[in-house]
Write a structure and sequence with these properties.
Blueprint (H helix, E strand, L loop, with lengths): L1 H20 L5 E4 L8 E9 L2 E10 L14 E8 L5 E7 L4 E10 L2 E7 L4 E8 L2
Antiparallel strand pairs: 1-2, 1-8, 2-3, 3-4, 4-5, 5-6, 6-7, 7-8
Length: 130
């Protein structure tokens, strides 16, 4: 019984350690600046089987809160986990007010996006705030 209990404890600790090293997309993220220098803070969370994210605040190029119609809007839609560790879904682009197909991957405290429409793709990098 003692060996079995020790085995279970080691197994649980090993599983916990591997989960702690996993790159988790949940939290508060800051987008890169748009053409006017405005960045948005997006809170990501689980929505059913997918990941979604809503804009919590917008900041100007000096870092001050700025009024924006993007605040309160959903920005990430139906980001589904893929076998290779990436997520695929849609992202709302506030400047063009359009939906783009997006592929996202988290590496540590950065979230890398590849956003595409019918004609071209663009890359974006967000930074984890919390």
């Amino acid at each position: 019984m003692s060996k079995f209990t020790t085995f279970l404890i080691i197994l649980c600790l090993s599983a916990g350690a591997s989960l702690a090293r996993a790159d988790v997309p949940l939290g508060l993220w800051q987008s890169g600046p748009d053409a006017t220098g405005t960045v948005v803070h997006v809170r990501t969370k689980i929505c059913g089987r997918a990941l979604c994210g809503c804009v919590e605040r917008a900041k100007d190029r000096r870092g001050y809160d700025t009024p924006s119609s993007a605040v309160g809007r959903k920005m990430l839609w139906d980001m589904l986990a893929q076998p290779d560790g990436t997520y695929e879904g849609q992202i709302w682009e506030p400047v063009g007010n359009r939906m783009l197909m997006a592929r996202m991957q988290v590496q540590g405290n950065t979230m890398q996006f590849r956003n595409c429409d019918a004609t071209a793709c663009q890359d974006a990098v967000w930074t984890r705030l919390r």
